[in-house]
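Re: the 697-residue chain
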Amino acid sequence: MTDVPAFFNLYRHNFARLAVAVPPVRVADPTFNARETIALMREADARHAALALFPELGLSAYACDDLFQQQALLDACLAALSDVLAASRQLSTIAVVGLPLAIDGQLFNCAAVVHRGLLLGIVPKTYLPNYREFYEARQFAPAAYLQRESIDLVGQTDVPCSANLLFRLEQQPLFTFHIETCEDLWVPIPPSSFAALAGATVLLNLSASNVTVGKADYRRLLAGSQSARCLAAYAYSAAGYGESTTDLAWDGHGMIYENGNALAQTQRFADTAQLICADIDLDRLVDERMRQTTFGDTAHVHREAAARFRTIDVPAILPRDIHLPLERSYERFPYVPADPARRDERCREIYDIQVQGLVTRMRATKMKTLVIGVSGGLDSTLALLVCVRAVDQLKLPRDAILACILPGFGTGQRTLGQARRLVAALGCRAREIDIRPSCMQMLQDIGHPFANGEPVHDITFENVQAGERTSHLFRMANMHGGLVVGTGDLSELALGWCTYGVGDHMSHYGVNASVPKTLIQYLVRWTADEGSLGKRAATVLRDVLETDISPELIPPGEDGEIQLTEAAIGPYELQDFNLYYLLRFGYRPSKVAFLAWSAWHDRAQGLWPDLPENKRHQYGIADIKRWLAVFLRRFFEQQQFKRSCLPNAPKVGSGGSLSPRGDYRAPSDASAAAWLADLDAVPDTESALDIRAAGGA
């Protein structure tokens, strides 16, 4: 039986909560600084963080200058470290704190790794800045000057001491962290680069980093790009309030990045203690390294440097058996940026990709006519908009687009009217053909009972209509020397919701093939709002957006109910979410379900990209599990054969393409058993979830 509270626990799904702390300090007052450090350690532990990172030389303060050469200060720092160690005995969170340490007659700028009263390792700073306002070489020696690999310190013996240490959590080996200090990030090849090649997924930087105009942006650039290049998390904690302002100023800039994405940042120039947390997706980092084979190539080239690292196992006990949801927000629409400015930019770029692909194909084939079926629904609307932009770019008249309206047995008056109005508003050449007579002929020829008056609306009845539409389009293209433009989208291909060969599966060129349904909705809405095609067209586009998604292959029932696509294959907004995380990252279904629950179970949580209130839905774990099972069967087991022979189409986004010539190659006769077995770990209900009793956040 599934342990319901434990399922809704971030650590169960290979997330880890990482904290960055910026305490206030007093210069040369280690007792005060230790007290502030311990307070934030306790706060991080209360928030169930696996690790808390503190600033460079935080137990002494950074701006001590020549006071670092005073034995009284160094002794006080050791006493402060002892206080931190004592406090850590009652805490589960690992702490990484900074202090000066005298070793063999030399002074080193060090990070100390503290857990449960143990000093797990000492990491000295590799690169010492000695330019402009920095004079660290006046007091400190670089890590390369260290002549031993372990030291005895504060009553503990044989403590590992080196710049080449990795720390791996025994309960979560995907969480392997490396420590560097401030300037180490600013050099051409940061030490963390080699640490990542040696297996570190979490890179930590204790920093002081005084503030000057524009420097914060550069720090973000460094931390973000290092996390992206290393396919790692990067946490950075800089000195803040209380540091000496004799000649410098400090802004307490803390930040956490994951593979180039900013997850959390402190408020700069705060005059109080700060603690930020972010939930790191370890699966994402490891999977990205596996997919990007050049990461492994680089590790091989630099294998000698990577081999110099020593791994320390950390016996941290992770809180895996309580209800502990993500603090991190996941967008409900991963293909659609929630930020309006980014969304507008994304829409423009997608159109440019689609149009460029179609224009290039027209130039290559020397064809100047496009043939497209227009249904009055979403997919054909977007494809028609792409056609219009393509002929405009080629300076061809709009009647170079032969827009075929092909009503059948299930075509509704609403969509038929929208198709007619849209074609007219865009100035395309319209051709309307009622396909029912040719469909009846086919049904009679094969002996289908519908031809004899029986109301049999089976798959044959549906596909005869889809096939007739495609046949008409290709023959019209033959007559007019044109290209048939496909309208099917990525979501339909993923679910196999397309008629193979003779239906909407086939075209000469498919402009929507890597655009998911949720993104198509926003592309159409963006076009309507942008207004470049005129008010008449914008009005029709908004009507299309308000129309229920239906293949319109079965006539309405006696109650007037129409055939609804999402009733058969699930809500597209949920299936697009599943598609993104299964295709782009290869996550386990149980993790996808956890992410979907995190994003969708609470209307007040997550990000809505400007949807009207009546379009805002929420899903509990039962609905998520049900529709994910549908997705897994259709995607992995039943419908791959359709994707193995797709027409040409441009790849649009990093979220993936299903073309066998692009992103995705898979056998057509695979089993979904492994994915469905993993889905069994997902509970059927949330009824056993008692947040207060379980002690969750």
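Residues 340-365 form the longest helix (26 residues).
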